[in-house]
Write a structure and sequence with these properties.
- Helix 5 packs parallel to helix 7.
- Strand 1, helix 3 and strand 2 form a beta-alpha-beta unit.
- The strands form two sheets. The protein has a seven-stranded parallel beta sheet with strand order 1-2-6-7-8-9-10.
- 30% of the residues lie in helices and 10% in strands.
- It has twelve helices and ten strands.
- It has 375 residues and is of the alpha/beta class.
Length: 375
Amino acid sequence: PSFQDSNADGWGDLAGVEQRLSYLEDLGVDLLWITPFYPSPMKDQGYDVSNYLEIDPRYGTFEDFDRLIRSAHSRGMRILADLVVNHTSSQHDWFRRARTSRDNSHRDFYIWRAAAPDGGPPNNWQSHFGGPAWTFDPQTGEYYLHLFTPDQPDLNWQNEAVAREVDAILRFWFERGLDGFRIDTAHYLTKHPDLLDNPPLPDGKVVRIGGITTDWLRQEHRYDGSQDSAKDIHRRWNRIAQEYDAFLLGEVYVLEPSNLASYVGGDGLHSAFWFGLVESGWQPAAIQEGLAIAAETSTHLAWVQSSHGRSRAVTRYGGGEIGRRRALLVATLTIALPGTPFLYQGEELGLEDELIPSALQRDPLAMSDDPSPGR
């Protein structure tokens, strides 16, 4: 939405991306990741998908999509879309059906549990966006799981029917010429089958306390994500991707390189972002050490300094001209490493954070968090 608006409605769109392909080509970009363009109630900037097989009219049409793919391919560029299947929107037809009855055929598409003996949530899991990860649904008298907002119920990946539906989604877009997917929250897909309580983190290991993520950050997420069974799903997708010579890029928010490396290469994800740079300020020794360890651990990683929902590198590195020089230096270093360097839109211009007046803010999650200057 914030890249290029082709029709002056104030909203970036697929036609706008196509208009800027020559600009991206001149920069040397040959792989482009586009954030979700599917229909969505926009409770989380499109990461709450209500239909995986359509295009939200705000972004354009299938004709716009097809033209973008053709234009990119004619330039030797490949296009990735977001695959967001840890959860759906609560407005997705699957969830609408699931909440009508405990006996509905789509009930097991999601994770439902009875209340704890005290009437509260089934366990102590927290939502990444604040509050318990469980919401009570009075219509059927059970809680449903959501690691993000209550508008984003988690899919039940123990259900083979869910896996088959997502297989069909991949094939649908690959058949239209899409070159791969960036897998959103790729390590969250499966949960411990017993839904055990997460242990608390020792106080000394809790970082970035403040805002809506405070309770989430106080726990060790041992049971609500990072299960080895998620890698079985990645391998399943890899077999489909092979048929189309497609690329699978994981958003795996695991900072420890050896753990991250277990998700990539072989018959799983082809690559995964290492977010060590995104989480760092200007600490040259730490940056050097982290990149060296990550690059030595795996040749399949993707290097990124900034991402949506995080402060831009120029600002984190001191802002202004000094921040731009430092960001350019780190970008130059990552381009020379094995793996795939990514630029977050605006980095090529040396952009830094800008404070958006409250009257103009549109992101409901940012608006619910503590104010943070420059974000």
